[in-house]
Amino acid sequence: MNIQNLMRQAQKMQKEIESKKNNLQKQEFNFEHQGVSLTMLGNYQIKKLTIDKNLVDPEDVELLEDFITLVINNAVEKISEEHENIMPKQESL
Question: What sections of the sequence does the record tag as coiled-coil (predicted)?
Fold first, then answer.
C-alpha cells in the first residue's frame, strides 16, 4: 500500500468520524429515575427536564435534588461513553 492510499484511507476515516460526531451531537438521550425524567442531546445540552408532582415536597428538597443530580450524572456518563465509542481503538504498534 502506498502513501497516497494511506492518506486517502485516513481522510475517509476522519470524515466518517466527523459525520458520526455530528450525528451524535443531535441525538436525543432519555433518562429517568424515581419520577425525574431528562432528555439530553449528544452535545450535553438539556432539552427537557420533568419532575413528577409527587416528588415536590418542601420538607424534603434534598431528595429531589439528589434525584435530579443522579439523572444528570447518568446522562453525562452515558453520552461520554457514546463519544468515546466513536473514536477508533488505537492498536499498539
Answer: 3-30
